[in-house]
Each structure stands twice: as structure tokens, then as C-alpha cells.
Amino acid sequence: MLNLSLKELSQALERKKFTSVELTQFFLDRVKKHNPLLNAFITVDENKSLAMAKKSDQLIQSGKKFILTGIPIAQKDIFCADGWKTTCGSKMLENFISPYDSTVIQKFNEIGAVNLGKTNMDEFAMGSSNETSYFGSVKNPWNLDCVPGGSSGGSAAAVAARLAPAATGTDTGGSIRQPASLCGFTGLKPTYGLISRYGMIAFASSLDQAGPMAISAEDCALMLNVMTGHDNKDSTSINRKKENYTNSLDKKIDGLKIGVPKEFFGEGLNPDVQKVIEEALRYYEKLGAEIVNISLPNNHLAIPAYYVIAPAEASSNLSRYDGVRYGYRAKEYDDLMDMYFKTRQEGFGDEVKRRILIGTYVLSAGYFDAYYLKAQKIRRLISNDFKLAYKKCDVIMGPSAPSIAFNSGEKKEDPLEMYMQDIFTISTNLAGLPAISIPVGSVRGLPVGLQLIGNHFEESKILNIAHIYQKNTDWHLHNPKGID
Amino acid sequence: MDWDIVIGIETHVQLKTKTKQFSGASVKYGSEPNSQACLVSMAYPGVLPVLNKESVNSAIRFGLAIDAEIAEKSVFARKNYFYPDLPKGYQISQFELPIVGKGKLSIDIGNELKEVRILRAHLEEDAGKSTHGLIDGKSGIDLNRAGTPLLEIVTEPDMNSAEEAVFYAKKLHNLVQWIGICDGNMQEGSFRCDVNVSVKKKGSNVLGTRREIKNLNSFRFIKQAVDYEVNWQIEKLEDGGKIEQATILFDPDSGETRSMRSKEEANDYRYFPDPDLLPLIISDEEIKGIKKLMPELPEEMKSRFQKDLGLSIYDSEGITSSRDVTQYFLKLVDLGVSAKLAANWILGNLFSQLKDKDIDILDSPILPEQLSKLINRIEDGTISNNAAKKVFEILWENTGKGVDLIIDELGLKQISDSNEIDGIVDAVLKSNLTMVEEFKSGKDKAFNALVGQVMKVSKGKANPAQVSSILKEKLSK
Questions:
Q1: What is the end-to-end Cα distance of chain A in Å, rounded?
Q2: Which of A400, A422, B262, B289 has the most Cβ atoms closer than 10 angstroms to its Cβ?
Q3: CB spacing of A313 vs B80 below 8 angstroms
């Protein structure tokens, strides 16, 4: 069970080699064994998961089976799940039990997938190392002294250590791809609007996007088939015919034009990581692709623009956590204002407070034009850079992260250094583009991810390009040592 | 010193939709606290707003009714502030790009028309309600109202007296009900006005500093509040003081206004486009479709009544003051009553009774069918105008008796038999020789006195027109 792909697991379930209950128990046991070390899960509920598995077995028995029926999936604790504690990594929601299902959870439930548990994450998805979680930091399975990346660090550690066959994540500025890169597996951030945000606790609404985290591109495609689809509960959800993302996985990539932006290889990129990425690009040439030099001239503005827009939206999105209706409320307070102050002071961590402050500042009268409006202009420039680039190439490639996994605590006290982790991922969020990170090598025993960026709605294409690489190599199948 | 009064009004019109502005929760008034607070109303983590199409249609109808431009693209924005009855910590409103642009509404001042320019109208959601004192030592929050659809209608500062402000409010109140977008219930808060008041030296081009009176929910309060506020401002200025921009509240019990917050205390709302909602795009086709379904507007109907039915400006204004009044009037006309008489009776006796008893015309105990019958009986000479008023009073009591039965029972039938009148006139002439002499010596007044005598003798039942002509004939012999 340990190293089977989603497809293989599905076939085994269908052929009754084992039941969903057995499979679920197997992974629950792994979680029980390794979670004390990795801290990948915030909530595990054996009874709930096994009850779901039982139902899935009945579905399989009766022949009403979808590909992921009966397969346990780890869910990032940002997705509201009816009856499950949904914390978003924050003290503010430490005891919040969701009364409803997010659309993503609902879709997994509908096809009879099993919820294996809720994974750890940076508080309100703000962070790149999973060190801002109220529930403690997550360890990188490849080296326990290192961070797994963030904000979907719990899902990342769970997939990398095979505590779950696959997991969900969300990506606002790189929160799926950077941890995928640091933990050595495949993570896809789809086009903005492809997966419903309903019930996914908001960080920055115009950038947040859910996506799959799994071993391979093929597994990601299977996950994506479940997660996508128009949702009338989310006004930004795109009304578009649902695709089958496995259909074109094996399409030949001869003559594929790979755009390589020079801005992704300059200052800030670790030279050893650069070597691995360049090697992967050469491998694509061997597979029949052609490298085209391109430029994304405004990429250096992506981080500054992002750290205006995302905090602005976050400062407003997080206003609802006021201690009035649900979640944390300060124990003692004098009056209404005092209740607000103390609740938010005690309920939010430092990074969240930092971003609320930045966001409030940039939206304030007198600063709005200079910050918020200017950042929106930059956002359009960045979008336009990509538009022009895709006239010259079919796909854009570069590193997913500037470095391999770094040591816990190394960047915690230096937010700017931490923000640089997303230097290659943020521009695609600003432009709403789909991108995938696949493992393509390692440096000092730690994985390195290659990022493939597609044009809008080209998930099928980048999954295909990623899959062809994975068919010919085995980097995605490497497992961390010491997690047995 | 003489002063000019300058008034602008922002009106919150609660739209008559089935569900909330951004969720499927019901908007029924008066339900158990929080029974209509869905997850969206309570701003649960992860929930998202979805725009109510019905409210958009309402806004378009309003835009068409005031001849305004409907924005092809409008944008929802977040207005950020903390308050316990504002669950999200922001209100979704429209800021830079409202759905309805510049339009106009004419008000009648005396017999003169005045145009009030509408600056804009935008869609937004209402907040919930904080209650104090219901729970011992604690405040309660009722989120039933949170998310209720509102259209905020903003005028230019075009009104110059409390009367004009009330005329405008009434006119707008009628219009939004007329086009079916608001139930107009002011007590329940479906129509609330924020009135901006300032004064300036007579003829000056420089506007004074304004103070905004919040949340006035009756026409009487608007009048009282503006009158009080204008006097307060003038007195302050004449005493050498300065007006500070402020938001103020009107206390109906004391009839005074008091400051709620000054400009310094004003919130910085940190407006920005709501990333959860796409810009609202409205096509020409959509507007055309809605235009087809628009009813004839009060202004259009007014001019038609003047032109086709010969009503005066005053009468046509009164008759179109609400859709229900118009319906009542048209019913009377349908039943064969002349437009002029119908208007007289509605705006006279009927209105004074309705107002007296504080009854809506829809609940009038006298139905158009009965009133038309009564008016017919005057026109066919069965009863006099004065007698008709008595019948009207009985009808109002709603005894179930018909017009003719009442006339019979009260013996109000006019004497229109000329022989009978002849006899009475002869008798009166005989016993009032002095008056006859006076008339013949040129005193015209004596004629009226003689008519009066005849009416008296006939106990008011003689047909006055007949009396007059018979009397004239006999005196000229």
C-alpha cells in the first residue's frame, strides 16, 4: 500500500486486494507512528475516517465506484469540513468545529474518498516554512532539522513521508509549489477560479487557489478531476466545461517550446539549485523539447506588489475574527473595544498581525493610491509579461523555490528573507496562471523542484509535460530515509 | 441677517426581495432573533457572497424611473469598520462605480416644479441590530437584518427648506413603491433618510459646513429635525460660532438634534474592490428587457391626467401621490364618474377621513363602487351635495347598507318635483313680503335670503337649482 500510485490503489480496491477500511487503517497507523515527530496533522479522527471508509467499501461493493473512492486523502486544515475541527493553523479557531462542508470537501465526500485528517499549516496560510502555525512547526521528512516549506507544510510532510497517498493544499503565493519543491513531490496550483473557494478559509481572495499535492503528475490529474468544477456559491468560480485531466497525459512533447525567463536565474537563486534546474531543462531537450530564452521584465516587482495586495485583502478578510460569534474570545475584558483588542491580540500570531497591519496601512486614506492602486497596476504589468511570453513559447520553466529546504528557525526572525522564498511562484498567482512543481533532483540530499507554468486553463498541458518527464525519470519516486 | 438653507438627502431604500443581498437567507421582518442568520449572514469562516439578481433588477428599475444612466460596469467594494452587528467587519457596498448614475426627480412646490438632481444610487447590504437590556447586563446581536438589500439614493444639495426636503422624501417614497422595489414601510425601516443640512449667507456661492442628521424614518421627523437644525446652525453662526462637520441624531421626544461623532472621529473605511465579487456587468439588452416591464410613471400619468382628463396640477399631483390612490381614482372614472368629481371626492372627503383615522386608502371602508354610486346620486339630482356628505359618513361606518338605502332611511331625497317646489316658493313669497320688496328695490342679497327660506321650509331637500330658477321666474313677474 505504501508506494502505490492513486491509480494502483484504486485498482487494488476494485480487485478487493484490500478494503478501504484496511487502507485507511494502514495510513492512520502511519500517522500515529510518525506524526509525533513530523507534526503534519492538527486533527486526526480515526472513528470518523474509518466510518467514511466503511461507507466507501459499500460503494465499492455495489459497483458505484469512482477512481478515488475509498482512498484516504489528507485535507489541509483550511478547508471547512462538517463536524471537523477546522483551525486554519490559528489559536483564533482552535476550537472551531465547522458546521458545513467546503465545496472541495463536499466533492471528495461525494465520490466516497476518505478524509484522513486535517493537516498542519502556517497560520491563515501566511508563511513559507510552516513555522507560524499555532499548533507547532512541521518537520521536513527528508531532514528533521529542516522546514517542509509552507504554508501547506503539513500536507507536504504527509505526502513526502507517505502518511497519506495524496493531500490537498492551497496556494496564494506559492504555498503548494514551494513545499512540493522542498519535500520532493508533485504539487499543482490551478488557474485562479478553477476550483471553488467556497468553504476554504480566505487569506487573499483574489489570489487563493486550492490544488492537489501528490507523488506524481498523474496523481495530481486524478485529484484535479475531483476538485474542479463551477460552483455557484463562489462568484469567482469559472463556468467552464469540466475536463478530464488524465486524457492527454501521454501526449508527445516533440517540438515543445520551453520558455526560460532570464529573471528566474539571476540573483537570489542558489547556484546548486540552478545546476539541478538546468540539468532538468537539458533533459527536456533530450525528450524533444526546445529551449527559448524569454523575459518577464516585471518579475522583480512581484513580491512588493504581492505584499501590498495580499495583506490588504487579508486585513479585511480577517476582520470577522472579532470574538463576537465564534472562535476565540479573550477571557477578560473591560468593554467592547477592549474585547476586540484582547481577542485579536491573543488570538492571532505575529505574522498574521504583521500582515493585518501592513494591509490596513496600505488601504488607509492617503496611502491607497500609492500602494494598493500601484500594486494593482503592477499586477496588470506582470500579467502582460506572461501574455507576451506565451507568444514565443508553450510553457515556461524555472525553479519553484530559490533554495532547498532550510533549517528550522533560520529565517523565522527575518520576514523579508522568508518572503523571498516565493520569488519564483508569486508572479503566477498575480497573473492567475496554473503552475506545477515536480522533483527533478537533489542538493545535499534535499529535493529540488522544477516549476512548469502554463497559460490560463492549460492544466492538461503542464500535467502532460510533467508526466512525460516522470515517465522517463524516477525523482518523484524517491522516498526520504528514516521514515519507515 | 438672511440665510439660505441647503439640503441634500441620502435615502436607504430596503429592496423588496425574497432573499438577502448576498445569500439565500430570508428577509422577513419581525422573525425570532437570528432565525434568518445563515452562515453568510454570520460571516462564518470560508463563506462567500453571491449577488442577488433581483436587487440588481430593482436598481435598474429605479435608474430608469429617474432617467439616469445605468452603469455598464459597476463594482462592489468593502467598507471596513468594526461593530458587533457587522459580522464580516466590512459592509459590501458600491463606492467608486455605482450601478445608477446621475438622474433627476421633480418635486412640486406649490404649483411650481423643481428638479432635484440625483447624484447616484448604489446597492449595498444592511447591518444587523444590537439590542441592549434584553439580556441582563449584556448586549445582544440580532443578525436577521444583516445582509438585507439596500439601494442608497444620494441627491445633490438641491433642496432649500424643510418643506422641500419633505416633498422630495414623499416623492421618492411614492416612486420606489410605484415601481415595486420597496414596501415603503417607514416604521419597519424600509425607507430611511440621512439629511445633510447647511446654511449660508443669502445669495452666497460658498456652501456652509454641513451636518448630517442620520436615520430619519418619518416625514414629520424630517420636517422637525431640519427646522431645529437650521435654527441651531443660524443661531450658532449669528453668535459668532463656527459649524463643525458632524454626524448627528434627531431625538423625536425632545425634538432636538445632538452630535453622534465629529469629523475627527469619523472612520477611515479603507474602501477597496471586493475580490469575492466580480464587477457587475449590465448589458443594453438587459436594460431594454426591464424597460419593457416598467409601469407608467407617476409623472407621466400626471401630465396625461392634466391633458386628457382636464385635471388641475394640484388634483393630478394628489391623485398620483401613490399608486393605490391612482388605482382608486381610475376605478371611479371607470365606473363613469367624471374625473374632476372623482378627484374632488378623493382629495376632499375621503382623504380627510383617511388621514383623520390614519387609514391607508387600500383599507378604506368605502369602496370605489360605493363612492361612485354616491357621486351618481348627486349628479342625477337625487340628493344634494350636503346630503351626500351625510351619506358618506354613514358609509364610512361600514354598516353594510347601500347608498340608496341610506338616502331613503335618512329621507335625504331631494324634492325635484317642480309643482311641489312651486307651492313652497309661493308660500315663502307670501310670508316674506319685506324681502320681496327689498329685492325689487334692487337689493340682490334678498334673493339669496329667499332661497334660504325655501330650503329651510323644504328641510333642505328642495333641489337648489330648481328653487333658484322658479324663484327667479316668479319674482320677475
A1: 13
A2: A400
A3: no
Residue the block writes with cell 468593554: A335
Q: What is the 3-state secondary structure (H, E, C) of B205-230?
A: CCCCCCEEEEEECCHHHHHHHHHHHH
Structural domains for chain B: 3-288 (no CATH), 296-410 (no CATH), 418-475 (1.10.10.410)
- Are the C-beta atoms of residues B145 and B127 closer than 8 Å to each other? yes
What pLDDT is recorded for position B349?
A: 92
pLDDT score of B187 more than 90: yes
Tell me whether residues B45 and A234 touch, CB distance under 8 A: no
H helix or E strand, kind and range, residue A453? strand A446-453
Q: Under a CB-based contact definition with an 8 Å cutoff, are residues A112 and A69 in contact?
A: yes
B430 CB-contact burial (10 Å; exposed 0-12 / middle 13-18 / buried 19+): exposed
- The pLDDT confidence band at residue B462, using thresholds 50, 70 and 90, is confident
CB contact under 8 A, A324 and B84: yes
Contact (CB, 8 A) for A132 and A349: yes
pLDDT at B399: 78
Best residue in A103, A319, A367, A374 to probe B by mutation, most B CBs within 10 Å?
Answer: A319
Q: Which of A175, A315, A400, A437 is catalytic?
A: A175
**C-alpha–C-alpha distance, residues A180 and A401, integer Å:** 9
- Considering A20, A151, A155, A437, which one is annotated as catalytic? A151
Which of B80, B82, B272 is nearest residue A322 as measured by Cβ atoms?
B82
Task: Report residue B251 as a C-alpha cell.
Answer: 431625538
In chain A, domain spans: 6-255+435-477
> What pLDDT, on a 0 to 100 scale, did the predictor assign at position A199?
98
pLDDT above 90 as % of chain A: 97
What pLDDT shows up at residue B467? 83
Q: Can you tell me the distance from the alpha carbon of A165 to that of A188, in angstroms, rounded to the nearest whole number?
A: 15
On whether the A6-255+435-477 domain is CATH 3.90.1300.10, my answer is yes
Pairwise CA distance, residues B51 & B39, whole Å: 15
pLDDT at B450 over 90: no
Beta-bridge partner residues of A115:
A73
* Neighbouring C-beta atoms of residue B312, cutoff 10 Å: 13
Which whole number is the average pLDDT over A199-208? 98
Strand partners, A396: A259, A453
Counting other chains too, the contacts that B31-36 makes at CB distance below 8 Å and 24 or more residues apart are B31/B144, B33/B131, B33/B140, B33/B142, B33/B144, B34/B141, B34/B142, B34/B143, B34/B144, B35/B144, B36/B143, B36/B144
Per-residue pLDDT tens for A207-232? Answer: 999 999 999 999 999 999 999 999 99
**Which set of grid coordinates corresponds to residue A109?**
465526500
Q: What is the pTM of this model?
A: 0.91
Rounded Cα distance, A387 and A433, in Å: 10
Residue B55 near residue B123 (C-beta atoms within 8 A): yes
| Complex ipTM tops 0.90 | yes
Q: Which of B46, B51, B277 sits opposite A202 (nearest CB)?
A: B46
Write the CB contacts of A132 (distance below 8 Å, at least 6 apart in sequence).
A89, A122, A123, A126, A150, A151, A349, A350, A351, A352
Output the pLDDT for position A457: 98
Q: How far is B234 from chain A (nearest CA, A)?
A: 33
